[in-house]
Design brief:
The chain is an all-alpha fold. The chain is built from two helices and no strands. It has a domain at 12-61. It has helices spanning 5-28, 33-65. The longest helix has 33 residues, at 33-65. The mean pLDDT is 89. Keywords: Membrane, Transmembrane, Transmembrane helix.
């Protein structure tokens, strides 16, 4: 499945926004199981967005430092 680049770039931020929203909802809702569910899903979504953002950042940093010429071409 392919998605357009602007949507792909927004996914980590969207995950973090949804996670923060669910954490806020867990704090505001006093409905027993719903607040617990919002808390767990919100924490996982926030953590997933952060991990995705950090992995992309690390990958792009390493790609920028990588010399695309092979080792044999350097001689």
């Amino acid at each position: 499945m392919w998605i357009s680049r602007p949507i792909y770039e927004l996914l980590p931020y969207l995950y973090m926004l949804v996670g923060a929203g669910l954490l806020a909802a867990a704090w505001l809702v006093d409905a027993g199981i719903w607040s617990s569910l919002f808390l767990v899903v919100g924490a996982l979504s926030l953590m997933g967005g952060l991990v995705l953002w950090l992995r992309r950042k690390d990958y792009r940093t390493k790609q920028a430092e990588y010399d695309s010429r092979s080792l044999d071409d350097k001689i």
